[in-house]
Design a protein that fits this description.
about 210 residues; mainly alpha
Length: about 210
């Protein structure tokens, strides 16, 4: 559906530009945008390689394992319906760790793997489970200690102080994460309440010997 919407917007833009005689401006904007995208991508490669290298060093030194142990109780609280020592926990911890350091591109593969593991536990394959909804909410509003990608973009555009956004980013993502957790807890409580109401009524009395069967 998103592809259809984007294609429709592009076609409408070309049609309007052709009608108004501005097709040359649109063509120039397309090539300028493509050039800017390539330039920004190359600027991001260096910072991504640097932080991914640090993450690999942290993994080999055991630092990530220690961080995972510290975050383990929090993850078990947020995902109470996942069995203990399930592979999904490892992918969720890796996803959250990458998001903490602002490595959104590095967090995405771990998030996908976590979703695949959670889908194996999902009894209803056509509907997202509560754990999957929790992971999506946390991944979208993840608290970020160091917004690495944003700092790289600011450096690429010659910002005077590219790291000055660290404090405000931390506050904004902390508020967003808290709001996501609260909304998730409320939705879980509501779902549990609705499931209890749908249960069939209990037998009105304890059957005794001689009672006629239904």
């Amino acid at each position: 559906m998103i592809n259809v919407i984007w294609m429709g917007m592009i076609l409408i833009g070309f049609i309007f530009s052709a009608v108004n005689g501005n097709i040359e401006d649109v063509t120039k904007a397309v090539f300028d945008g493509a050039q800017t995208g390539v330039t920004v991508s190359f600027g991001l490669i260096s910072i991504m390689v640097f932080w991914l290298g640090l993450m690999r060093l942290a993994e080999d030194s055991g630092l990530l394992a220690k961080i995972a142990r510290l975050m383990g109780p929090v993850v078990r609280y947020l995902f109470p319906d996942i069995p203990k020592n399930h592979p999904a926990f490892g992918y969720i911890l890796s996803n959250m760790s990458a998001n903490l350091f602002g490595l959104g591109n590095a967090a995405t593969p771990m998030g996908i793997k976590a979703m695949q593991e959670l889908q194996k536990l999902n009894p209803d394959k056509e509907q997202a489970s509560p754990a999957m909804c929790t992971l999506l909410a946390l991944n979208t509003a993840s608290i970020t200690l160091i917004p690495t990608t944003l700092i790289a973009i600011r450096m690429n555009y010659h910002s005077a102080n590219p790291s000055e956004i660290v404090g405000t980013t931390l506050m904004a993502t902390a508020v967003a994460t808290l709001a996501a957790i609260m909304a998730d807890r409320w939705c879980r409580h509501r779902l549990i309440s609705q499931s209890k109401k749908k249960k069939p009524p209990a037998w009105p009395h304890t059957p005794k010997e001689g009672d006629a069967p239904c």
